[in-house]
Amino acid sequence: ELLHLGVKLLLQTEYATIKAQVEDVESRNTEKIAALEAQLEEAHKAVAAAEERATEFARKYGNEFYMRKQLHNQLQDMIGSLRVYCRVRPASGQELAIDGENGLSVNVPDDTTAIVTDRDNEKNPTKHYEFNMIYGPDSSQEDVFRDTEPLMTSVLDGFNVCIFAYGQSGSGKTYTMEGSADNPGLTFRAMSRLFEVVAERQEQGHQTELYLSMLEIYNETIKDLLVEPGEDVSKKKYDILKDSMLGMYVKDLNSVAVHTASHVKTIVQQGNANRKSATTNLNEHSSRSHMVVTVTARTTDGNTGETWVGKLSLVDLAGSERLAKSDTKGQAAKESMAINKSLTTLGTVVAALAGGEKHIPYRDSKLTYLLQDSLGGNSKTLMFVNVSPAQYNVKETINSLNFASRAKTVALGKATKNRETAQAQINKVQTTLGALQTQADNTGAKKSAPAASPPQTKGPSAAGGAKKAAGRR
């Protein structure tokens, strides 16, 4: 009995101890829960405050976004509508072997000055040239694109932009415009940046559609470089027409809706494969035609309903050298004469614009007629003059730089935005681009299929067809 009583007393004592411990744990847990609830409440308040700050930041960012865009366009207008950049390519091993580093004809002391020395001209061997920007032989593709990139965003703001490369064969025009697989040029870098900006602006409620076309002017004949194998083009005339909003365009030219930079690269490579080339004294793969890559951007502001359309034209001109210099024969000689004729007309047009003449002979060649709005219309235009540093090419270098010097005096006036209201979008923009979108949708299942004809607002058939297409959308 005493043993039983002792065990009972021991159990009661342990029970009391455990109970006290449990109560202590519960008390402490209650305090911790209360503290956690207080912290959670503070966290909710912090989140609410952060959301409020984020909303305010988004509002300020939107204001800053539009302000930056406005200031950017004002800056481009202040710089001038026609800008001239010069790029001097590096000397080749063969040129260095002939001239030596001290015998090269072109020196670039700073980023706006080029000094050309013709060692065969004893009376006047040295000439000085100044342009908006000059890139020496050590310049990179990144350097060149960095200074042209701001111009690209103007397209997404509803402006027409034209960048064209001028110079003799082998001077680096195609490398500047297209580059190589591992070091792309302006075309691919521009498209990559355009898609980046489009993605950024989606956050501001902007929706953008991009379309691409490619053509070459070969022996004064326009050729669609995006024609599918076996496609019948016998009934297509490829007439150059004028749209009230987009300026000059080519009727019946295939246009492809593009969605990524890699897609653009595939299409441009397809077009390049169809371009005319030949071997000359100056270049093993000399382009025998002028090539124009056109990107049309249609942007709609979802907040206001406003729509604007811009056009980016990237032009790689054929070589500007004299026939004797290229030493071409037969068909290649005929091609050279056609090239020289169109470039001579381009020089005449630039001279007429620089001189303020009333009549500008745009229609004297397909090239100048197509570039009419870029040279003397509603466009922001940049000319790249590409030159060789070799003494062997100094005459062609001087000719190119003289042409560029005339071009930089051309005052095109302030470019205006191709803006449409929501109502005008229905009445006009869909008329202009509706057929393009509809055909792009209908042919989307075909591999690299042409999407549609370019904008056509002139003539009842073009307008009517586009309106029907817009109605089906």
List the helices and strands and how they pair.
Layout: H1 2-79, E1 82-88, H2 93-99, E2 106-110, E3 113-117, E4 126-130, E5 133-135, H3 141-156, E6 160-166, H4 173-177, H5 186-202, E7 206-218, E8 221-224, E9 240-243, E10 247-250, E11 256-258, H6 261-273, E12 277-278, E13 286-287, E14 290-301, E15 307-316, H7 323-326, H8 331-354, H9 366-370, H10 372-376, E16 380-387, H11 394-407, E17 419-420, H12 422-442, H13 460-472
Helix pairs in contact: 3-5, 5-6, 12-13
Outline the structure in words.
- This protein is an alpha+beta fold and 473 residues long.
- Helix content is 47%, strand content 20%.
- It is built from 13 helices and 17 strands.
- It has helices spanning 2-79, 93-99, 141-156, 173-177, 186-202, 261-273, 323-326, 331-354, 366-370, 372-376, 394-407, 422-442, 460-472, and strands at residues 82-88, 106-110, 113-117, 126-130, 133-135, 160-166, 206-218, 221-224, 240-243, 247-250, 256-258, 277-278, 286-287, 290-301, 307-316, 380-387, 419-420.
- The strands form four sheets. Strands 1, 5, 6, 7, 8, 11, 14, 15, 16 and 17 form a ten-stranded mixed beta sheet that branches. A three-stranded antiparallel beta sheet has the order 2-3-4, covered by helices on one side.
- β3 and β4 form a beta hairpin.
- α3 (141-156) crosses α5, α5 runs antiparallel to α6 and α12 (422-442) crosses α13.
- The chain is elongated, with a radius of gyration of 32 Å.
- It starts with a helix and ends with a helix.
- Mean pLDDT is 81; it is low at 278-286, 323-328 and 447-473.
